[in-house]
Amino acid sequence: MSKNNKPLTEGPIKAHLIRLAIPAAMGMVFNTLYNLTDNWFAGQISDDALAGLSIASVVFALFIALAAGLQSGTSAMVAPDLAKKRHTHVRHWIQNATGIALTLSLLIFILGWAFGKNLLMVLSDSELTVKLAWEYTWVILLGNLAFALTQTAAGALMAFGNTRAFRNVLIVGFFANWLLNPLFIFVFDWGVAGLALSTVVIKSVSALVLFWVLSKELGMVPKPAFRWRKWRQLLSQIIPSGLNMLTIIVGGFITIYFVARFGDEAVAGYSVGVRIEQLLLLSAMGLNAAVMAVAGQSFGAKDYQRVKQTYHQALKLGFVVSIFAVPAMIFLSSLMMDQFTNNAKIIDIGVYYLRVDALAFFGYVLLFNSVAVLQAIKQPIFPMVIGVLRQMVLPTLANFILIVLLGYDVYAIFWAIICIVLSSAIFMLIYTERQLNRLG
């Protein structure tokens, strides 16, 4: 085990959170830019290719959500034993998480091959769009193991307090994408499949680099292990986290469904507004990785007071982020929307959404950090339940009543989002504080 690790159970909590959060947030920014780059290149191929990539991304997101819990689940199991210096256990968790990654990637491939094209046909009536979407999807499915291994290694490194390695591969991957996309698409003439192949190559190299860094931390190369007792404990963390991610994706479908009742311009305005909001939220989301690592190691060391302090310090830092983000959403929303479109109606809807949702910005921060600390103390079930209610059940009920039964306009959907987010945040705060107090 590397001796260069600085224990997160010692020293100022605030300094640890900032040190870990900044690289994590930067990585998320470049990951978002990576996705925008793919959209740009798809648009250079054709409008049909852009539409195909859009629906392919939706379908693949559903499948990849099965493996999305690998990062937080691996981190939650590794961090406590790392704090206890139980290095053999740390290696066993990582090896068994790698075994789960292999198995999940095979499951994703089978499900994607069996049902992927049918899902694409549900999302589009255009044969050409579905054809192009499937050209992208089948290549991604073949290489989906790289996604799972990347998540596993990133989660393990997060537990070590290393968020820089993941940031670095995301930054390099962003620039590599600008080189490989035109090479595969225009030089080799592989079209949308070339777009997918670029992503698979970059993710495969990223997985290799992260496992190389991880092997240096461990003092050995982790190999897949298949011990059911370890798997059961890992899956108890991975599955709820993955399902929580799935609720976010499905929840996005539900909201778009109701917004679409008001036309394509309403969908465009809302979608652009959400993208801008997500960019602003990335700085707050970077705290998640930091909270998982610091709280996880503190939990392993049975320093429960430090776990509480980590949560509270993260909320304070999130509030500072909100002080800058909320005015930007209110006063700069028109300027930001102008960068995406000249359509006055799209701009008006996007501006309205951003200004209303600014009221819930700190609510998102509170939710993110509450989920992170609960996962760190190995209690991922309640966040999953709140996710189902917040993303699926409550929006469906509220929007059905407001839009279908009462006939309100699209702006009512945005106010419903605010009410649901803030009420969910309050419940999460109360529950999280109660669980932390029970630790001792």
Structure characterization notes:
This protein is mainly alpha-helical and 440 residues long. The protein is built from 15 helices and no strands. It has helices at residues 13-45, 47-83, 87-123, 127-142, 144-159, 164-187, 191-218, 228-259, 264-300, 304-331, 333-338, 344-357, 361-376, 381-405, 411-439. α9 (264-300) packs antiparallel against α10. It starts with 12 loop residues before the first helix and ends with a helix. The mean pLDDT is 90.
Assess the beta-strand content as a share of residues: under 5%
What general outline do the C-alpha atoms trace? globular
- In DSSP terms, counting alpha (H) and pi (I) runs of 4 or more, how many helices? 15
Flag low-confidence runs.
none
Taking all Cα atoms into account, the compactness measure Rg is 21 Å
Number of strands: 0
Query: Percent helix among the residues?
Result: over 70%
| Average pLDDT taken over every residue | 90
* N- and C-termini, Cα separation: 31 Å
Main sheet attributes: strand count, strand direction, barrel closure: none
Entry summary:
The chain contains 15 helices and no strands. It has 440 residues and is mainly α.
For this entry, give a set of tags:
mainly alpha, 440 residues, 86% helix
Describe the secondary structure blueprint for this structure.
Elements: H1 13-45, H2 47-83, H3 87-123, H4 127-142, H5 144-159, H6 164-187, H7 191-218, H8 228-259, H9 264-300, H10 304-331, H11 333-338, H12 344-357, H13 361-376, H14 381-405, H15 411-439
Helix pairs in contact: 1-2, 1-6, 1-9, 2-3, 2-4, 2-5, 2-8, 2-9, 3-4, 3-5, 3-8, 4-7, 5-7, 6-7, 8-14, 9-10, 9-12, 9-13, 10-12, 10-13, 12-15, 13-15, 14-15
